Amino acid sequence: MAFDLNKHVARLLMNEPFFAALSRRVDKRACNIPTAAVRVNRDTAQFEMLYNPEFFEGLTDKERAGVLKHEFYHLVFEHVT
C-alpha cells in the first residue's frame, strides 16, 4: 500500500488544531526530494508541501508529526515569502 500522508496530517490536526486552517491551504505532493519542503508553486501561486513518501515511511508517528509541524512553521514564520 502506498504511503498516505493525509492520514498523518489528519492525526496532527486532531491533536494540534492550530495547524488545521493552515494545512487546508497547502497543496501536498509526493516527489523524490530527500525529506520534505514547503514552497510557493510558481504555476498556481499556492503554498505547496513536497514530501518523499519513502522518507516518511521510515519515521515513527511522532517523528512524522514533528516533520509536518516543522514544515508548517516555515509557512507561519514566512520563510517562503
State Rg: 12 Å
Order of helices and strands: HHEEEHH
Low-confidence stretches: none
Distance between termini?
Answer: 35 Å
How would you summarize what this structure contains?
The protein has four helices and three strands; from the N terminus they run ααβββαα. The chain has helices at 5-15, 20-24, 53-57, 61-76; strands at 26-30, 36-40, 47-51. The radius of gyration is 12 Å and the shape is globular.
Task: Provide key terms for this protein.
81 residues; alpha+beta; 3-stranded mixed beta sheet; 4 helices; 3 strands; 46% helix; globular
How would you characterize the overall build of this protein?
This protein is an alpha+beta fold. It has helices spanning 5-15, 20-24, 53-57, 61-76; strands spanning 26-30, 36-40, 47-51. Helix 1 (5-15) crosses helix 4. The longest helix is centred in the last third of the chain and has 16 residues, at 61-76.
